[in-house]
């Protein structure tokens, strides 16, 4: 299962007026681990950042779902609350989920999250919508990381049939010294 990680990257950015400024921008990456998130951000950010950049922090971020619309670049975090019944005790329990939606403003974010959740079978409320500083989102894409032991971000590569090839591994140490008499 892929998780979402917020990765902050520090680099020198050139603005439209030609000025250069050192900035730290957050990106959202879908991956299986912190290590994979770092590897993916180096690959993704390395394509558009000229010069050196530094990953300053990686943190796991909990989003129930992400709703992307091509017409907007701003990302809004929407907190959705609903009441459910605990199966064991029978008591009512309040559940909060965070969703991410792209929109131009808070009103549009509210309308889009309402539209996206209209099939939900429980009554819910949206107590909070806030603009996030997230610059871009990099979802899971199979076979994305080249030269990795994984098939691009998480699924383990297909096993090699042991009968077809010799296994060469630096992790196998064999210490056997047979005498000629045996």
Q: Could you give a short description of this structure?
A:
This protein is mostly beta strands. The protein is built from 2 helices and 10 strands; from the N terminus they run E-E-H-E-E-E-E-H-E-E-E-E.
Low-pLDDT ranges:
147-182
User: Distance between termini?
Assistant: 52 Å
General shape: globular
Number of strands: 10
Number of helices: 2
Q: Quick one: biggest sheet?
A: 4 strands, mixed
- Strand fraction equals 35-45%
Radius of gyration: 23 Å
Mean of pLDDT: 81
SSE ordering: EEHEEEEHEEEE
The percent range for helix content is 10-25%
Q: What's the number of structural domains?
A: 1
Q: What is the structural class?
A: mainly beta
**How are the strands of the largest sheet arranged?**
3-1-2-8
Explain what you see.
The protein is mainly beta. The protein has one domain (3-154). Helix content is 13%, strand content 41%. It is built from two helices and ten strands. It has helices at residues 34-46, 106-116; strands spanning 3-14, 20-31, 53-61, 65-67, 74-85, 92-103, 124-131, 136-138, 150-151, 155-156. The strands form three sheets. Strands 3-1-2-8 form a four-stranded mixed sheet, covered by helices on one side. The chain is globular, with a radius of gyration of 23 Å. The model is unreliable at 147-182 (pLDDT under 50).
């Amino acid at each position: 299962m892929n998780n979402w990680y917020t990765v902050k990257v520090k680099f020198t950015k050139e603005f439209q007026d030609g000025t250069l400024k050192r900035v730290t921008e957050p990106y959202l990456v879908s991956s299986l681990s912190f290590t994979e998130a770092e590897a993916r951000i180096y690959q993704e950010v390395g394509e558009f950042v000229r010069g050196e950049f530094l990953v300053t922090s990686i943190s796991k971020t909990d989003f129930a779902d992400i709703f992307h619309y091509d017409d907007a670049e701003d990302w809004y975090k929407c907190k959705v609350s609903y009441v459910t019944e605990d199966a064991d005790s029978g008591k009512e329990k309040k559940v909060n989920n965070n969703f991410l939606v792209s929109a131009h403003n808070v009103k549009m974010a509210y309308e889009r999250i309402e539209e996206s959740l209209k099939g939900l079978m429980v009554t819910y409320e949206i107590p909070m919508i806030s603009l996030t500083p997230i610059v871009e989102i990099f979802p899971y894409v199979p076979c994305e990381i080249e030269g990795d032991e994984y098939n691009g971000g998480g699924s383990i590569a297909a096993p090699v049939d042991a009968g077809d090839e010799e296994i060469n591994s630096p992790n196998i140490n064999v210490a056997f010294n047979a005498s000629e008499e045996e």
